[in-house]
Amino acid sequence: MTTESETAVRPVVEIKNLHKSFGDNHVLRGIDFTVRQGEVVCVIGPSGSGKSTLLRCVNLLEVPQQGQVLVRGEDITDPDCHLDAARQQIGMVFQQFNLFPHLTALVNCTVAQTTVLKRKPAEADRIARANLERVGLSEKITAFPAQLSGGQQQRVAIARALSMDPALMLFDEPTSALDPELVGDVLTVMRKLALDGMTMLVVTHEMAFAREVADRVVFMDGGVIVEQGPPADVIGNPSHERTRTFLRRVL
Ligand code: ADP
Ligand code: MG
């Protein structure tokens, strides 16, 4: 639901005519889309269609050859942009959890707070504990990654990202590396975040999740957005044959 005052607010992310190639592999072929405050957008599409590349362009982990990426109105592709400040507004959760193996769950969640945001240790500790509680891991704060299940590690990764107070959370197939019985706990945490109003851009193959949680579903194929809209349309009643073919394979 968007009110008039909200539409006046700048979108959290605005992508305009984005092109990205690796050598002569033209991976993103003119992507335009917007994520508004509080929106949950799920990106679906076949393997190799450019979903991860798109997500990585949003925080300039990949540098596009053409087009603009605006984060809250600031063009992060502009060489004069203060990229670190823009990146601090974006939390990212990967398929592989990328935790620091030699640090406890708690310290995984405090280290960037103290080094990057210059928070005092006591404050960082309080925020980390609150976020570990939010993902259901209060009991595990002293555990090291190797002592945790994949689902627990991914929830630490989410708590770590949340501890930086991001304006936007990017998720790249956060449950794809998990054993099936561990997927539900991570999706439950993400569902809760969505209900709390977090702005989220999620690449996922979990169609039930996308259907239930997404405000909008974006279907990508061959480096373009083939269609986007409410999940009931894109997943429930797609207008394009390419979307139908993809959904027949994954549903
Ligand atoms: P998806 O996430 O939809 O599976 P990707 O964005 O990972 O797709 O990949 C899209 C295409 O870009 C693929 O052809 C892949 O091989 C290529 N690609 C992705 N990252 C790189 C890279 N760092 N170097 C070269 N090619 C890449
Ligand atoms: Mg990918």
UniProtKB/TrEMBL annotation:
DNA-binding recorded as keyword: no
This protein's record includes keyword Flavoprotein: no
Domain ABC transporter: start-end pairs: 13-247
Reaction equations catalysed: a polar amino acid(out) + ATP + H2O = a polar amino acid(in) + ADP + phosphate + H(+)
SUPFAM superfamilies xrefs: P-loop containing nucleoside triphosphate hydrolases (SSF52540)
E.C. designation(s): 7.4.2.1
Recorded GO MF terms: ATP binding; ATP hydrolysis activity; ATPase-coupled polar amino acid-transporter activity
Keyword annotations from UniProtKB, A to Z: Amino-acid transport, ATP-binding, Cell membrane, Membrane, Nucleotide-binding, Transport
Signal peptide positions (record): none
Membrane topology of the entry: Peripheral membrane protein
Main subcellular localisation: membrane
Any one Gene Ontology cellular component term annotated for this protein: plasma membrane
Protein location: Cell membrane
Any matching Pfam family: ABC_tran
Family: Belongs to the ABC transporter superfamily.
Protein name: ABC-type polar-amino-acid transporter
